[in-house]
């Protein structure tokens, strides 16, 4: 590698500052290899984010121009506001997309961080450019199909952008800010914003269009959840049993999943039984839940099990095939 790029990589990844008037610090082979590795990990991550955001832009643009725009249907959030203003003023949607989201980008810089705000600004700008320059065919004029498939492609686009570390609808940022300020939940704020948007649509565009737009919003929400959370829903299971070793072996060898074992103390009873016990924790998919319950029933039908939803997982053995016993 060119010495200039070697120096740049090391500075970027190891973040060592050179002192003025001093000799350049020599790097060991280990530090150099670590710097290269971290640099390529960052490069790979940014490239993946770029592909996801780009795919999200084209999917959302297809939802807009292929379905929603010609029928004046709207969505919730900032995209819904942009669509409503475009229908009322006849000003192109790509202009409203930028104007409506500018305050949200500024808010994102304050609430979430600079990197997220920059990626969001680039994603929104890319969406506006795509809407202005790329022609998509009008797929259908059937109202129900427009509402369902327009919402689907729009939701997929927003979800892919979220996967890439950005948003093309700034309403989520506003909801995060207001929830922190007033102590309310994100869901309550988003519902309130959408009630205002769809009420305005009913007043200006008609009740029928507003009702179809609600179908668009619901479809987009489900598509967004599908893209962000994935096809498999994960379940975290905490198992308390006196047969913890057998349960651990069952999860590893029969189900092919990883486990975490940590120490605990029994607390049942008036004064509590302070005897120590091993607590087993594992993450499985919802499709494997029935098998886990069946195997637990074989080992200890009185085992205390707490299950909770897990949004996503990374690493470990969650995606590996079960081992043969």
Commentary on this structure:
This protein is of the alpha+beta class. It has two domains: 46-229, no CATH class; 234-310, Alpha-Beta Plaits (2-Layer Sandwich), CATH 3.30.70. Helices cover 63% and strands 10% of the residues. It has eleven helices and four strands; from the N terminus they run αααααααααβαββαβ. Strands 2-3-1-4 form a four-stranded antiparallel sheet, covered by helices on one side. Helix 2 crosses helix 5 (114-133), helix 3 runs antiparallel to helix 4 and helix 6 (143-163) runs parallel beside helix 9. The longest helix is centred in the N-terminal third of the chain and has 43 residues, at 29-71. It is globular. The model is unreliable at 16-22 and 320-325 (pLDDT under 50).
Largest sheet, order of strands side by side?
2-3-1-4
Total number of distinct structural domains: 2
- Bin the strand percentage: 5-15%
* Overall spatial form: globular
- The residue ranges in which pLDDT falls below 50 over 5 or more consecutive positions are 16-22, 320-325
Q: What class would the helix/strand composition place it in?
A: alpha+beta
The chain-level mean pLDDT equals 82
What portion of residues is helical?
55-70%
Largest sheet: 4 strands, antiparallel
End-to-end Cα distance, whole Å, is 48 Å
SSE series: HHHHHHHHHEHEEHE
Radius of gyration: 26 Å
Number of helices: 11
- Total number of β-strand segments? 4
Detail the topology: elements first, then pairings.
Blueprint: H1 3-14, H2 29-71, H3 77-89, H4 93-111, H5 114-133, H6 143-163, H7 171-182, H8 186-204, H9 207-229, E1 234-240, H10 244-254, E2 259-265, E3 276-285, H11 289-299, E4 304-310
Antiparallel strand pairs: 1-3, 1-4, 2-3
Helix pairs in contact: 1-2, 2-5, 2-6, 3-4, 3-8, 4-5, 4-7, 6-9, 7-8, 8-9, 10-11
